[in-house]
Write a structure and sequence with these properties.
The protein is of the alpha+beta class and about 190 residues long. Helices cover about 50% and strands about 25% of the residues. Strands 1-2-3-4 form a four-stranded antiparallel β-sheet.
Length: about 190
Amino acid sequence: MRLHPLPLFALLTLFCLGLTTGCATGPDERPGDPAALQAEVRAFHTNLRWARWEHASNSIHDAYVQEFMGRYEELGEDYRIVDVTTVSAEIGDDGRSAVVEVDQEWYQLPSTSVQKVRFVERWVFEDDRWSLRERMPRDEYRELGRVFPTEEADRERAEREAAEQEAAEREAAEREAAEQSQEDTPEP
């Protein structure tokens, strides 16, 4: 029995079309999505590796951009990153934060001795995207008790905002109750 090439060609074409359109949609970018985090981390580290500081800053949280850019401007053109390797990545229980550890190899001209430092990065998912919130050497992170300064500040701010919201709601309820009691009181 001989197969006709047209149906086989049509089937193969549909199969290939299905593969390319499926891949073109990309990963779901939702909180906790490891693929979205991995893509953003990879883009950031690639830009670091090739000294594209401006491009790398696109992966950085707005609150950290100025500090990041200042640091690399201070290091100057003689600072070269040889390699950045992701060692581990752990997404938090809330799916909106992640801690990523990377090994970064670098040198500063005129020296050509390659140095290696392990960095710990805190990534956050806000405004439908992952962004780097903070980055520090692992030794410094350990000295701080494995808590990022901005993480503690963010937690304190959230607690303060929640307390303010609760106080405002309580005040509004008391005001409404006072107005209701005045309406219920008959005039003499």
